[in-house]
Q: What sequence folds into this?
């Protein structure tokens, strides 16, 4: 393949990306020129990595994510080098995670993992009476993201600037109450809903029944309130592991310590409501990525670098295993069964109480 060199994307953009798409990404509220990279080989191959700084949430844990879009050469060496450079760039910008859409067979080689199972809810369409959101709806949309019922899996967390950016290009469809307040929204991609929220189950039913008639699937997790409302209305759920050839969003913790620390409030809350409520002790985590210590004392949880001597010893956890654990994608006992996590069988319980699978 030859050498791969990485540089910042200049104003003279190679003909690898639609200029309108690039301009849209550059209008993102957290756009930084240093987050767009160009990879070139000595054979003339080129690829672009656009990194967008986004925020996501899983229950009480909120974390900074670099979402990478790749354009141009798909050669494995180019992709791997570009993703490695993107990870370094994202960490320097304060992000703990990298998210990218890749073939699962390729992503797995680098420890990247999907956040959820592949699930689809077959839908029958609706009456098409939803209307596009306007800038006057931004406050309602932010409130929905902050307070509406949410699944246990990871979900995007959008603020006012994010919604203004979204509405400028592809406004979500919204349902309103009699006073004109937004009670639910749906973001569509082709014939599928890819994201949405509703204030309660009644609003969820109303939103679904008013979707365009062309919407035939909901690409939502089974525990998503909108998916549950659809099932109550007679929809069919299909769920499976993503196949190896699937091109799907995959994740990896690129700053494991920061990724762990973002979970501290959630860890304390989970422990308090588990069968280990009141447990005090320490958990040491070790892997090729480094080591960390989880200290549980007086109802609080603190994360520090270095494992030291701990009450519970996770002697080895792969970066893919750690990413899956933090995302709630797999349980500690499942990771232990596949060798992605090593600890004594009697110590798995407290790890699972802190990191329950979603």
A:
């Amino acid at each position: 393949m030859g050498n791969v060199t990485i540089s910042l994307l200049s104003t003279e953009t190679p003909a690898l990306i639609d200029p309108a798409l690039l301009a849209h990404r550059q209008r993102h509220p957290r756009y930084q020129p240093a987050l767009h990279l160009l990879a070139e080989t000595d054979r003339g191959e080129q690829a672009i990595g656009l990194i967008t700084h986004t925020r996501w949430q899983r229950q009480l844990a909120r974390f900074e994510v670099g979402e990478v879009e790749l354009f141009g050469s798909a050669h494995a060496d180019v992709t791997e080098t570009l993703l490695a450079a993107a990870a370094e760039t994202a960490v320097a910008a304060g992000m703990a995670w990298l998210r990218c859409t890749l073939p699962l067979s390729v992503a797995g080689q680098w420890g990247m993992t999907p956040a959820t199972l592949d699930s689809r809810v077959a839908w029958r369409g609706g009456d098409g009476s939803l209307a596009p959101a306007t800038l006057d709806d931004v406050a309602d949309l932010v409130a929905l993201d902050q307070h509406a019922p949410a699944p246990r899996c990871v979900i995007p967390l959008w603020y006012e600037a994010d919604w203004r950016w979204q509405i400028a290009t592809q406004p979500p469809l919204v349902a309103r109450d009699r006073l004109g307040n937004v009670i639910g929204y749906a973001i569509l991609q082709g014939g599928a809903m890819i994201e949405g929220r509703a204030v309660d189950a009644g609003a969820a039913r109303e939103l679904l029944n008013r979707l365009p008639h062309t919407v035939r699937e909901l690409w939502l997790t089974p525990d998503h309130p909108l998916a549950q409302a659809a099932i109550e209305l007679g929809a069919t759920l299909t769920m499976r592991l993503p196949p190896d050839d699937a091109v799907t969003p995959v994740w990896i913790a690129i700053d494991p310590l920061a990724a762990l620390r973002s979970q501290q409030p959630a860890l304390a809350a989970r422990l308090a409501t588990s069968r280990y409520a009141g447990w005090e002790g320490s958990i040491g985590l070790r892997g090729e990525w480094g080591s960390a210590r989880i200290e549980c004392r007086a109802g609080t949880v603190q994360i520090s670098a270095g494992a030291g001597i701990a009450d519970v010893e996770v002697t080895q956890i792969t970066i893919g295993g750690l990413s899956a654990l933090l995302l709630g994608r797999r349980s500690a006992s499942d990771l232990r069964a596949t060798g992605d996590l090593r600890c004594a069988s009697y110590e798995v319980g407290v790890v699972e109480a802190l990191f329950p699978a979603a």
In short: The first strand starts at residue 4 and ends at 8. The mean pLDDT is 94.
